[in-house]
Amino acid sequence: MKLRYNESHQFYIMQVTDTHLGTYPFQENDKKTLHKLQKAVEGLKPDLIVFTGDIIYSLKKHFAENPLKSFEAFIHFVNRLETPYVVTFGNHDAEPESGIGRAQLWQIYQEKCLYKPLIMGEHLFEDRYSYLVPIYDTTGQIIHQMCFVIDSGDYSGTNHSYYAWVAPEQIDWFKEAVRKYSIPDKKYQHLMFQHIPIPEYWLASLDIQSGEFSEDIGENLSWSTGQTATIPFKNFVASPEVNSGLFYQMLMSQSIWGMFVGHDHDNNFDGVYKNIHLIYGQSSGYNTYGTLPKGVRMIYLNEIDGCIETQTVQYDC
């Protein structure tokens, strides 16, 4: 399915993140999440939905008895929305001790998704799938924008960082994809989506254009691991402690308008660092921690002037 701007030269992307669906059959909080999401899609009418990870839980301690069934039920639900959609995974979708793998989830999406957009340039590093989603102009002949969807992994498994970082192999893929699919006279137009924020989100928090920076490390870690932590910061970006250099390639490419992540449920800011927007989605699921209202993030693209705008939309507004 080829995505293209409509006759009014508009294209709308909805970012949905951290739905955290638990055991299937779904319980009250999960049913509430799916009901609210359905109403949001019906009201906002996106042309593409991007799910940026932590779609499901995969551990029993996080209310997941049968994660593969939960993910398949999620896919069947989204199919009923009759809107093109893509997925990437977070740190909870297929945790190392869960007994399931990211490849299994990706296979379910590939086989069961009824509204799959055209995907290009697939790349596999270990068990992480990254790929490109082109958005064509109104004629359907020329690529106007490219969405880079990167699997940022889960945990590093080292003493260097709690969370994983985007691997050098993935960064090499990004660099080559930018070169191969570069669009003449189109700078700072492309979008990136992944789950875990990169370290530069700390710097973007110094220049917040909109939204809130209120993630609490104690609440974050107590939910995920049962641990508590004390850090010398009022608020927190749960990025890897290792900087693998993805932002440098984004900067050098002169092609990226912004990156969209999830992961931190009480951050939903749009911050700017070196003219690149580093943006959080709006935490979308009720079966998890968070004090911010649940909702989605909308991204509005204009073909005529190349303008890109984004805002969070709360479910109950």
From TrEMBL:
What superkingdom does the record give?
Bacteria
Query: Which residues belong to any copy of the Calcineurin-like phosphoesterase domain?
Result: 13-199
Q: Name one Pfam family in it.
A: Metallophos
- Molecular-function annotations in GO: hydrolase activity, acting on ester bonds
Q: Mention any one GO cellular component term assigned to this protein in its UniProt record.
A: cytoplasm
The record's PANTHER family line, in alphabetical order, gives:
METALLOPHOSPHOESTERASE DOMAIN-CONTAINING PROTEIN, PHOSPHATASE DCR2-RELATED-RELATED
Record's protein name: Calcineurin-like phosphoesterase
This protein's species is Streptococcus merionis
Q: What is the lineage of its organism?
A: Bacteria, Bacillati, Bacillota, Bacilli, Lactobacillales
